[in-house]
Amino acid sequence: MLCPWRTANLGLLLILTVFLVTASSSSCMDETQITQNNSAFLTEANTSWPILMGKNAVLCCPPIALKYLIIITWEIILRDQPFCKKAYKKETNETKETNCTDERITWVSRPDQNPALQIRPVAITHDGYYRCIMGAPDGNFHRGYHLQVLVTPEVTLFQSRNGTAVCKAAAGKPAAQISWIPEGDCVTEQEYGGNGTVTVKSTCHWEGHDVSTVTCHVSHLTGNKSLDIELPPVAGAKKSAKLYILCIILAISVLIIVGFIWLLKIGRCRKHKWNKTEATPVEEDEMQPYASYTEKSNPLYDTTNKVKVPQALQSEVETNLHAV
């Protein structure tokens, strides 16, 4: 069980924490408005304040005790816009605006309670100079802000048709810085937009170097970014590869031609040997029909030689021939 005094302390601590969180949400540039009875030590101050587009900004006046104030004036000078003035007069407890058309630039609260100015949210058009002038019996006190709106560039890395690598940081504010790893032969161009942004494009190639992977490093006030890309073989390597392939094709072609000639010679040799082996039987076969023809074409010659005439008949024929 907690003691009563401990419970009270915890409750007080919780209330104090909530109060601090609430107070910090209305603070400007991480500083708290302070109250001083004697503000003679204050002098005019100007501050450069880079802020990311889309964020909320709170601009504070010099830390002067509100009870000593007579008038509070904000002067706002923006690019391509008319001079804007916001004023608060304590004696009449009234505010007045001149040429102030941007509804995103307002007082944080009632000027008699907090004279700070707020911008919700910050846009590119809010790039400019803001000055708070506080009038007191001891004089006027100033605090100025050179507000620089930052825009994060869109980074892309790609390979073009001719084999070069292109790194692009588009629509950044201010202009980004591009570097390469490894370093190559690069050309950097800048294109300015009408709203104050800048597009930076760097084109690189690594002729004569065997580079397979390159890194594009983009430096910017809003943060750095690196992208990698793989490159195809360089022209020299391509030529070597093509020459190597051509040599292989030629060697294979020569081997095919030599093999074909060798096979053709082997085939002719075999045919010649076969013709020699079969020559004699072929001649005998060709003579046999001629011999049979001769034998069949002279049957009388062969029959006469074979027929024998009787002796008596031969004598009678001879006698008849003599009688004649």
From TrEMBL:
<protein>
    <submittedName>
        <fullName>CD200 receptor 1</fullName>
    </submittedName>
</protein>
<keyword id="KW-0732">Signal</keyword>
<dbReference type="InterPro" id="IPR013783">
    <property type="entry name" value="Ig-like_fold"/>
</dbReference>
<keyword id="KW-1015">Disulfide bond</keyword>
<keyword id="KW-1133">Transmembrane helix</keyword>
<keyword id="KW-0812">Transmembrane</keyword>
<keyword id="KW-0675">Receptor</keyword>
<dbReference type="GO" id="GO:0150077">
    <property type="term" value="P:regulation of neuroinflammatory response"/>
</dbReference>
<dbReference type="InterPro" id="IPR040012">
    <property type="entry name" value="CD200R"/>
</dbReference>
<dbReference type="InterPro" id="IPR036179">
    <property type="entry name" value="Ig-like_dom_sf"/>
</dbReference>
<dbReference type="GO" id="GO:0009897">
    <property type="term" value="C:external side of plasma membrane"/>
</dbReference>
<comment type="similarity">
    <text>Belongs to the CD200R family.</text>
</comment>
<feature type="transmembrane region" description="Helical">
    <location>
        <begin position="243"/>
        <end position="264"/>
    </location>
</feature>
<dbReference type="InterPro" id="IPR013162">
    <property type="entry name" value="CD80_C2-set"/>
</dbReference>
<dbReference type="InterPro" id="IPR007110">
    <property type="entry name" value="Ig-like_dom"/>
</dbReference>
<feature type="domain" description="Ig-like">
    <location>
        <begin position="137"/>
        <end position="228"/>
    </location>
</feature>
<feature type="signal peptide">
    <location>
        <begin position="1"/>
        <end position="23"/>
    </location>
</feature>
<dbReference type="Pfam" id="PF08205">
    <property type="entry name" value="C2-set_2"/>
</dbReference>
<dbReference type="GO" id="GO:0038023">
    <property type="term" value="F:signaling receptor activity"/>
</dbReference>
<keyword id="KW-0325">Glycoprotein</keyword>
<keyword id="KW-0472">Membrane</keyword>
